[in-house]
Amino acid sequence: MRDKTHSEQVERWANYVKNNPDWKKKLKPFLDSQIIISRRIYKKLSETEEGKEKIKMIRNLKN
Amino acid sequence: MDRKVSDRTILDEFAEKFCEIAEKYVKYIICSGFVSIAHGRSRGTEDIDMIIERIPIEIFINLHKNLEKAGFECMQSDNPKIIYEEYLMNGDSIRYTFGEGGIPPEMEVKFAKDILDEEQLKTRKKLPFTGLDIYFSSIESNIAFKEELLKSDKDIEDARHLRIIYKEEINEEIINKIKRNIRILRLKKNER
Predict the structure, then answer these.
(1) Out of B18, B91, B99, B141, which could bridge B137 as a Cys pair, Cβ 3.0 to 4.6 Å?
(2) Do A31 and B11 touch (CB under 8 A)?
(3) Nearest CB partner across the interface for B105, out of A13, A25, A35
């Protein structure tokens, strides 16, 4: 189990979301950045010699 | 809840696009992590979980073809017959990404596997708080699965988050009933 401050932060943020209609605007850059970074890494990886194979292995893709 | 289009995240757009097509062919629900994220949980995910009712192969082929037409690609195979018979019918999930190359996010789709899933489909709902035009499994169901079955730190925090957001509306009786069914059907525990 994570420590107390972690669960306090979960609670604090949930209360913010509940009470502030602008929560999505605040959260969007954070949520999108994870997808954007992930896409960037896959793109870079696909440009390397064995990158495409590695991506297949990572994501268990079809041949 | 009033929200501008520009607030939509990459995950929101991906989910709505996929669900808009799925809804024409099959009853579905979005469940698990994305439910919490759509309610503001500040954590990432690469996949969105979707449970669909069991449909005949002919309907699935139409669904798959229309998803492909819209730009979605199935990671398991291009052949809907293989996807249906070797994955869905075996209880395995299939994964769709948007555009070529299998880059995130992805929609993880599986058939309803028992009465718990069927009940989730039956009680599905749109959740105005999310601002999304998609069907989710009920909040009670999400909390029950996370607290009784999944139980990782992340899942417990997801449930806590949902409990705070829906503090005044949550029906504990329903949560307890679902938890009981989880223990019987998924954890194979005897309940008297």
Answers:
(1) B141
(2) yes
(3) A35
